Amino acid sequence: MFTRLAAGDCTDPEFRARCVGTFKGGPTTHRANLDTEGQLVLKPDNQPVYRLAPQDGRRFRIVELEGFVVEFSGEGTTKRIEG
Questions:
Q1: CA torsion angle for 44, 59, 75, 22 (degrees, to 10)?
Q2: How would you classify residue 52: left for phi > 0, otherwise alpha for psi between -120 and 50, otherwise beta?
Q3: Which of 12, 16, 38, 40 lies at a CB distance of 3.0 to 4.6 Å from 52, suitable for a disulfide?
Q4: The whole model's pTM is what?
């Protein structure tokens, strides 16, 4: 059995740092920050903090929500959540 390894910008610490910020998705504000290990975390209003694991390109999977991913585009100024 093989496991796909993360690749692309999502594995670059400098890219992850550029993804830090506040984003609006409908009525919800999402705050992306780096944890103490330099990994991204996402905190939506009125929800717990979610860990973002590098997936591919500029996409991160939400560890605690199976099937959900976050994609940062440009310089980390926009975000798309799929699930």
A1: 0
A2: beta
A3: 40
A4: 0.83
